[in-house]
Amino acid sequence: MSAGTDDRASFERNTDLMAKSIDVSDLNIFYGSFLAVEGVNMTIPARSVTALIGPSGCGKSTFLRTLNRMHEVIPGARVEGKVVVDGNSLYDPTIDPVEVRRQVGMVFQRPNPFPTMSIADNVLAGLRLNNKKLKKSEAEDVVERSLKGANLWNEVKDRLGKPGMGLSGGQQQRLCIARAIAVRPQVLLMDEPCSALDPISTSAIEDLIHELRTDYTIVIVTHNMQQAARVSEDTAFFNLAGAGKPGRLIEMSPTKKIFSNPDEEATEAYISGRFG
Ligand SMILES: Nc1ncnc2c1ncn2[C@@H]1O[C@H](COP(=O)(O)OP(=O)(O)OP(=O)(O)O)[C@@H](O)[C@H]1O
């Protein structure tokens, strides 16, 4: 059991929080003229954890970043095709990418708290970036709710004014998750969130992912197949047809099926460690 399970038990469910499914159709993803990922069609279910697995360079992170329009912050990067969240086509010209990133939060490989900010200010950073003016009591509520949601409250409640950088790596990653959920996103994207963490912190984050899925649609990139098997309901396997060729979605199925009886030979070869 993780240190903060009590936090989650007392975490007041936010009733207007509506996790959404994501429909991806015919998605091609480019860096300049380089087609990195080709022809993805996928439905990511709401209130569930979907793992993205596959060998290095097959485009898992690239695909993940298209789900909140982070891909296009790279000069020359663009997409063709559609990503639809709750009926909203994310790449429609009328859609504001900043609003997309508010609704679709992201947690990165390395914990990245703002180094000069306190624990509390780190949690509030996303809201402040969105220019949201908060009364002191509201800010305190958001900090407590988010840290409880991230199973970190009990460990930090007596030092909220201290720097976020003073926490352990695992605590910093939970602080980043608290910062992501403070803005009440519908979807949480996680790009190898445990790869910089020790086994105990990894286990705490995995417990947290397990608990968060009742409120959020979660998509996680992982190199660790045991982790995919432990935390996800569905798994999508990406692969490259060859060097310099684009990555493709090979198959997506319930995680149990992918790891016991996948449809495709390439999936079987990858999960049994024969390549990748
Ligand atoms: N900023 C970038 N500019 C140009 N090409 C990029 C950029 N980022 C990634 N690529 C290319 O896009 C392809 C997919 O990379 P990506 O990092 O998405 O793969 P990945 O499956 O997440 O790999 P890994 O498991 O090693 O993290 C690779 O060929 C990579 O070299």
Automatic annotation (TrEMBL):
<dbReference type="GO" id="GO:0016020">
    <property type="term" value="C:membrane"/>
</dbReference>
<dbReference type="InterPro" id="IPR005670">
    <property type="entry name" value="PstB-like"/>
</dbReference>
<dbReference type="GO" id="GO:0035435">
    <property type="term" value="P:phosphate ion transmembrane transport"/>
</dbReference>
<keyword id="KW-1278">Translocase</keyword>
<dbReference type="InterPro" id="IPR003439">
    <property type="entry name" value="ABC_transporter-like_ATP-bd"/>
</dbReference>
<dbReference type="InterPro" id="IPR003593">
    <property type="entry name" value="AAA+_ATPase"/>
</dbReference>
<keyword id="KW-0547">Nucleotide-binding</keyword>
<dbReference type="GO" id="GO:0005315">
    <property type="term" value="F:phosphate transmembrane transporter activity"/>
</dbReference>
<dbReference type="Pfam" id="PF00005">
    <property type="entry name" value="ABC_tran"/>
</dbReference>
<dbReference type="GO" id="GO:0016887">
    <property type="term" value="F:ATP hydrolysis activity"/>
</dbReference>
<dbReference type="InterPro" id="IPR027417">
    <property type="entry name" value="P-loop_NTPase"/>
</dbReference>
<keyword id="KW-0067">ATP-binding</keyword>
<feature type="domain" description="ABC transporter">
    <location>
        <begin position="22"/>
        <end position="265"/>
    </location>
</feature>
<protein>
    <submittedName>
        <fullName>Phosphate import ATP-binding protein PstB</fullName>
    </submittedName>
</protein>
<dbReference type="GO" id="GO:0005524">
    <property type="term" value="F:ATP binding"/>
</dbReference>
<keyword id="KW-0813">Transport</keyword>
<dbReference type="InterPro" id="IPR017871">
    <property type="entry name" value="ABC_transporter-like_CS"/>
</dbReference>
